[in-house]
User: Fold these one by one.
Assistant:
Number 1:
Amino acid sequence: MSETAGAVCETCPRHCRLAEGATGYCRARSAVGGRVVCTNYGRLTSLALDPIEKKPLSFFHPGGNVLSIGSYGCNLRCPFCQNDSISQHGEDEVSWQQATPSALADLALRLRDERDNIGLAYTYNEPLVGWEFVRDCAVEIRKRGLQNVLVSNGCAEAAVIDVLAPLIDAANIDLKGPSQDYYDWVGGDFGAVCRTIRTLHKAGCHVEVTTLIVPGRNDADDDIDAIATFVASVSPDIPLHVTRFFPRWRMSDATPTPVSDIRRLADVARARLGRVLTGNC
Ligand code: SF4
């Protein structure tokens, strides 16, 4: 096989080139029949009815619930990952159950009447590595008059976001840091995340942004000011959640972010944005 042989995945900026049968960096996509397909399609590791505020979305149907699903896999490697038990594992390392878009949409509809459910949220692991399942569920959810919610790292190619944007009603996108230097640390693409936020907002999606403050990494005033400046350039009305880090995964020995730092940084962001919230405090 030549060095350039293999199928290239166009889902995220990593552009994995995969030999037949090989699985990508995210563990959710594999080369089958000469092209890269989503192998975690419909494989649910998590299913729960969550308060919408837990996503977090603070200004979208407040007080409502949203049926929330997750699979396995992620295209980033944030050392502080809060969901590593599913996001950093593949199909043989987690337990999952197969689901179909129509069955999930029917369940979401039943829960609308019984439990004040507004729709379906794609969350827990990184949903965009299995964007085809998000797309197919979103179509079924819309047919039933319900809402689609995306919770994502936003690190995907423009073509993927262009397909999903008209189907997504609300999104919380992580903007983890202020620069490509920060995204080099977590294994992502800063420009792609910024583009996702812009595209979703332009498409009319309700967008909120979350920044997890990791001590010593993105806790300088200039860091949050740069993040708030970008968000304000999309719209100063976009809510920004400034949230506290707790030790997890490869940063289990680190100390939590001091609450005083979160409050200080939120105040810095408020110079540019009208709606800044603190989280995990
Ligand atoms: S989505 Fe997965 S397989 Fe595709 S390029 Fe990104 S990490 Fe690689």
Number 2:
Amino acid sequence: MKLYYDFHTHSCLSPCGDNDMTPYNLVNMAKLLGLDIIALTDHNSCENCASAIKVGKEIGITVIPGMELCTSEEVHIVCLFDDIENAMRFSDFVISTMPPVKNRPDIFGEQLIMNERDNILGKQEKLLTLASSISISGVCETVHSYGGVCYPAHIDRSSYSVLSNLGMITEDMKFSCVEMTAEADREALIKAHPILSGVQVFVDSDAHYLENIKDAENIIDLPENSAKAVIDYIKSLPEMHI
Ligand SMILES: [Zn+2]
Ligand SMILES: [Zn+2]
């Protein structure tokens, strides 16, 4: 079945995520825009995913628990999980690898953890923009060990991307797909990096504000509308090679 997707969105838990971007508002806006399946991928935390999943179940849109991990090289990686328990185990692990630097709410926002009714459950005290100690060289193995899949985020961007920070994607990183922004010049990227030839490209919104969630336009063809179907599909893709 053909599904409109967006696998990279942020909630009010993310630094610089708008406080209006509650799990309730985010999922309802995605539904309103015609999306069938989304992932919530806050920076280095999955703590708002359970609430977003509950909202999704109520209104009929699939929410995949996810995270935008910041590796030790300051490269952003979209991580997706088939269930909330695995995602939360990974989230706890990632938080434990981060430096003990406290959030500055006046600069980065409050990093709110909310339930499915817009009530505040708590705040994440550690500053979630900082790098974890997980290296890009082992990130696929680590995420797989928690039952998830991952791919490099916004590879065409000039910051926090694998190409901006490391200059290339190598086979030993073991990725099987990538994310590009809607503005990316795919042909130029493939010419400059032949390893990208024939590789599955996801285009996500990376929305931090409600108005940044894009209209339904990117489609994935899956046997069913579920997080597991997305994870299984990404697992089935061949690893990138020259
Ligand atoms: Zn990013
Ligand atoms: Zn992002």
Number 3:
Amino acid sequence: MRPFRYHRPAGVAEAVALVDAAPNAAYLAGGTNLVDLMKLGVQRPDLLVDVNRLPLDTVDPLPDGGLRIGATVRNSDLAAHPLVRRHHPLLTRALLAAASGQLRNMATTAGNLLQRTRCVYFQDTARACNKREPGSGCAARHGQNRDLAILDWSEWCVATNPSDLAVALVALDAVVEAYEPDGPRDVPLTGLHRSPGEHPERETTLAHGALITAVRVPALPFAHRSTYRKVRDRASFAFAVGSVAAALDLNGDVVRDVRLAYGAVAHRPWRAYRAEETLRGRPFTADLAARAADAELAAARPLTHNAFKVPLIRNITVRALTDLAGAVGR
Ligand SMILES: Cc1cc2nc3c(=O)[nH]c(=O)nc-3n(C[C@H](O)[C@H](O)[C@H](O)COP(=O)(O)OP(=O)(O)OC[C@H]3O[C@@H](n4cnc5c(N)ncnc54)[C@H](O)[C@@H]3O)c2cc1C
Ligand code: SF4
């Protein structure tokens, strides 16, 4: 690991000013992703600005019934929080499906959203990777790409976003509160992560130096009827091969409203708007759920080794929605 400076700021404004002033500075939260990448030589910050002691570690109810989650709330604390468990079980499920107990005790809300891709070539400094080293090529495009994208990839990068929490938050229309060098800014979670395009090294729409301070989750009347279904190579402690976050509201058997988002299919957590449109206002059946997934996946362009993801996502969509429909009916 290369030498680096370390600073623990007294407040948010000081933290942002420090990172803004240093082109190669990074915020340090739980360190479960950043420190690993520093050890591998993938990230080489010369200044770490530690956000762990900033007062950003509470979960607070909002007047509209929603939640405001501080950036440094640990994944374990968020999953176990009574308001989250009661009103947003989707978040608890997504969080508990991720990593291990020890990692969740360290990992923070903002760190989870901004964790880097698990593409193996990104982590291997001997291989070409446009994300790590712009202009060097993409070893995954025609290499081992089983775990990578089927939607919205570019010739420059076919990586996926690995966060489970981000998929759930995208489904819930969450909003990121960022403190940028120019001042505070709200960023809808659906607009936080970028498509890879020609610049996969630019992963978010945040300005350099932006500090995420909180995530707001608006009230959703049917949020308690929601689920997260994740398929992975091992039963625990593994990243998603494909995942779905779903919430369903039925009026009789007619879909009054629905939320659907997919994980491990694209460079960003994927809100499945076409599938939602297909479902809304129609009597719910497993066949309708399958047609909804097909509508979303019509745009899929599988790589050499991951065509299986298309039926996988279709199947977990049907399963998640029929489970929810059954629960609503009871
Ligand atoms: C073995 C293993 C298995 C895992 N499995 C899963 C899994 O199945 N699902 C899953 O979702 N995750 C998984 N993870 C990833 C884990 O959840 C992330 O490493 C963790 O959430 C990152 O949070 P952190 O607080 O440690 O972030 P850090 O490592 O401290 O930071 C990550 C990034 O976020 C930036 N950052 C941190 N806080 C802020 C802030 N407030 N504002 C702006 N930038 C900030 C940092 O600069 C850095 O770039 C796994 C990790 C490991 C090591
Ligand atoms: S898919 Fe993206 S992260 Fe992976 S090697 Fe290609 S450019 Fe790098």
